[in-house]
Amino acid sequence: MAEEAAKIPLVLVHGHPFDHTMWDPQRTAFAPSRRVLAPDLRGYGSAPRGPEITDFGQFAQDIEALLDEREVESCVLAGLSMGGQIVMDCYRRFPERIRGLVLADTFPAAETPEGVESRHAMADRLLREGMRGYADEVLEKMVAPYADAEIKSHVHRMMTATDPKGAAAALRARAARPDYRDLLTRVTVPALVVVGRDDEYTPVSDAEAMHAALPDSTLLVVEGAAHMPNLERPAEFDAALGALLTRVDSLTRADRAS
To answer: Helix (H) and strand (E) counts for the chain?
Structure first.
């Protein structure tokens, strides 16, 4: 317990249309020696069926409420894809509680007009047809075609279990999210940017641009992975995440001693 108390908590924010189990490898790796929170976002997984998301910033408000509820004063905040954008919104709203950032397979720009139209069209489709057809179509973009069959099954199961209403509401809110590019240039904590080499949704160039914008960041391009390197190549992902956590722990101890 003393060792755990000396380490900064880790909060893991899942992407769309997944749930907290996408972080199973990281919870296994880090929870034995560190406090790890991996919540289901509103409208996903086992999250209570409350009001649907109407504004993207509500996700960040929910994360802050979770920190208050669990009495987490500060943390390292990690997110993948939509989760990465939620992490950026969290930093916009309560930077004083964030000691480190992990931005995985995500991008900071606001939606283009075409992107807005596409997200609304997909929201309409999910409400009309449900999740299975979409899950079948995008599975081998979420994880690489050559990914392990068990990983593919896990990802497909998360997608098909998602409530279409929650997913559609999140897509509409995400279509109207702000632009976080200028925010990244003002981040004052260490950051880790991760991307799968074969990610079609957020290519390596997006990760390189975030790495260049962040004042203090490390870039990891994961070979043999697509959009979910934390599942596809957990050893590489966890090594980089562990290095960031060790650095943040050291900085936090130094701050407390000064």
So the answer is: 12, 6
Q: Is 115 left (phi over 0), alpha (psi -120 to 50) or beta?
A: alpha
pTM: 0.96
Q: Cis omega before residue 9 (within 30°)?
A: no
Dihedral sign, Cα of residue 152, residue 19, residue 8, residue 222 = positive
Give, for all 258 residues of the chain, the pLDDT tens digit.
455 667 999 999 999 999 999 999 999 999 999 999 999 999 999 887 778 899 999 999 999 999 999 999 999 999 999 999 999 999 999 999 999 999 999 999 999 999 999 999 999 999 999 999 999 999 999 999 999 999 999 999 999 999 999 999 999 999 999 999 999 999 999 999 999 999 999 999 999 999 999 999 999 999 999 999 999 999 999 999 999 999 999 998 888 776
